[in-house]
Amino acid sequence: AVLDAAERLIAEHGYEAATVSALVEEAGVPASSVYHYFGSKEGVLLAVMERGAKRYLAEVPAFARRIGSRQEHLRVLVETAASLLDRDPDFLRILVVMAAQPMSAGEGEVHRVVNRVRELALQRLREQMEIVFALDPESASADHLARFALAAFDGAFVAHQSHPEVTIAELLEHLPAALAAVRRELGRAGRS
Fold this sequence. Notes:
75% of the residues lie in helices and 0% in strands. The protein is mainly alpha-helical and 192 residues long.
């Protein structure tokens, strides 16, 4: 109940507005419980991030082999990611905000969680670039394509948050073709 309330408050009003008193009111628990179980407001944020990371990482697709053609595989990958972004907007909103803001005192552990989630997403995307384009997942090209895809996912999520009438799937519709085009350009530039 406390973590659900905290996630909702932080996602809707920002970390600064999610005070312990607001959390206590939202969750219907005494402040002493918050301090006993989490130690501080930062401890609550860390628990929210850890729980969200576990949930998110369990759902990030990790296809072991190519599904159909390159375009079909990329389409399924993008559709799966778009669906994931739609299912857990509160955690992802917090993740994007925490990734974009400078680290302040006491938030080092939170930023480590944010970085771990993003690095795992990049690693899974690099592995997909190996499957789709026969690239070494540790190569500069696989990394470039993975970062390009993650930037597109981030951007589509943020754009959807500001304009909910446009779906994430619509915003990412051309990402498979864009990834194939970037791969071709990397090949032409000799960056296989």
